[in-house]
Prior knowledge:
The complex is a heterodimer. Chain A is an all-alpha fold. Chain A has three helices and no strands.
Amino acid sequence: MNFGSIPLTYYLVLSAALFTMGALGVLIRRNALIIFMSVELMLNAANLAFVAFARQYGVFTGQLFVFFVMTVAAAEVAVGLALIVAIFRTKHSIDVDQMSSLKG
Amino acid sequence: MDLTLILFIILAVTAIATALGLLISRNAVYAALFLVMNFACVAIFYLLLGAPFIAMAQVTVYAGAIMVLFLFVIMLLGAEKLPKGDVLPVQRPLAIGAAVILLAEAVILLVQRFQSTAMLQAPGTVENSMDSLREMSGLLFTEYLLPFEVTSILLLVAMVGAIVLTKQEKGTRG
């Protein structure tokens, strides 16, 4: 069985589709948690493209970048969820439309 | 048809379907579980692409740690049921139109640019998983040593930040 026979373009198109869905989720959902999950989906789509390119060109830098992106995503989730919890404590809601206190 | 291609198509359809499920589900727990499924599909793609270490990291870090944190916060806040928010009337069609344009642009550009390099390199240079792991760690601790160290500081900052943000002051309960 040959595991190298899928064109790079397929992976790139899949990655683009997943990224678009993440962007769409950020645009149409109002729940902060779902928006956050959509951001994770976008990061994952970029990671997939990185690994596909790493395979295409036979270098490991792409895989290393995925490694770094994962740590950044973990840090982002920790701080972001802490922010959501803090906002929920004061507003009792995580709807992003409610977070308009700074509006004049 | 090649067996790998069939596997790829099944996985791709599952990944897209679970992403759609994340977009439309009305329950935050279901959305999180859809995302776990999506991460698992992407992990199998990493295995297909000859990156076993990244695949395992994907499962443990994303599908494990990050999504457990998400589920924990959803249950802590009791935010499982998402109310039908009254969005701006033009927002949804506008967003879908923008997403379609973005997708079309990305696909056209990527296909144009990378059509020539049609097939992924046959396995050989990156076939042996232990070799790939050795190569990667070699790069990580030589050429990318500084980013690696910066990452450790980033994780420390994130940990301190999360603790400070969620800490409740004594007496002044918010």
